[in-house]
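Q: What structure does this chain adopt?
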Amino acid sequence: MRWSMRNMLHCRRGSAAFATVIALIPLIGMMALGGEAGSWYVTQQRAQGAADAAAYAGALRLACDAAPQPGTTCNNTQTYDYRGKQAAAQNTFCNSGDTAYPGSRCVATSGVTRTVQVASLTSWNGVAGTYVQATISQQQPGYLAQVLGLSTVTIAATAVAKLDSLAKPPCVLALKDPVTFQGSATVSSANCGISSDSSASNAIGFIGNSGISVNAPSYTVGGCSQTGGSQCTGVQTYQQPIPDPLSAVNTALSALKTSDFANSNNNAVPQPYETCSCYNSSNNPTFSGALNGTYYFSGNVKINMNPTITGTATLIFFAGATLTITGTPTIQLTAMKSPTGPSVLSASVKALMTDLLIYDGEAYSKQGVNISGTSTSYFNGTVYIPNAPVTYGGNSSSSAPGTGCYQVIAYAVSFQGNTTLDNSKCTSDGAAKPNVQTVRLVQ
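A:
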């Protein structure tokens, strides 16, 4: 019995298991502490998302005051900081007791304190401008972290959004599909931009390399693609969409009927308020001369071969009418400052039609509107074709170099051949165009 007791006292069986258990205690503690730290990371990611939304929403509210866009609704009934805090609340972060925001998902949690601060800044990182900064923090108890002396843990996130003014206006705006350049297209538009509301990866696309020259601030909702060269370097991608500044014009003009006009002409030579199928034949058009006034076409208009058409005019195509320009015509047209129209058009719509050169409301088709011509052709004014793509080809050009401002707003825009676009006077010709504002996160 004495021997057995001695043996038992000296027995080492199970000592390894006991030592393993002792060693696992700190390891398990570190793993638990790591899990707690992981929950902090998840909270910080949620706080960052809420801060991003708050800064962006606050800056959008400031954009309402800076330049509300025609055709859009701008709700400025609340302050910018209210809008920012509302966006944070919709992402579960509110100041204590401040939860009464539309769509709020804030829930009070015992021992947890959250703060939301939204401020307007006149500079950020030494760069002057209009900014909105959102700072969100959450203080919560430290549990296992108390062994490190952390009785509470504060998790914070900050975001900064900048309000930018884009070129006034974008000289080229594609409302749905990409802006495409190929061939030997030349765009000289240093004072106003090129924009595409397409979200595609090729929202602004450069096909080929040789001969393409683009000097213009460029913005797109989607990406930029190129088959050679470095044309995409100057394109700002993944921006917010630019509203159609003439959407009210499109709504009003697309609703016009021939009965809205007091007189319906059907002459060989176009007259104001024209409602005919002019040039609608396979033969060469016979008209060559001056267009002066506002013209409304209900039939298809085809300008072919080499007529010379000049003047100061606004050309409206409605009720299924289409415009086709082919061959090598010489077209030198300047838009009217005060287009006229039937009484059903409101004064506000007519005001938006200032400098409108061509409106074509035809429905989308693969062909769309094709414009070509000689190197002496030019348009001074706005070509507005919201429902179909526009293709510029041949040797067509826009405004006479250095003389005017040319703008194209269309479903999609393609520049081919030797097209030349010169908008060097777009900021000084007095044209009434919207000041386009964008908001982007800079932190």
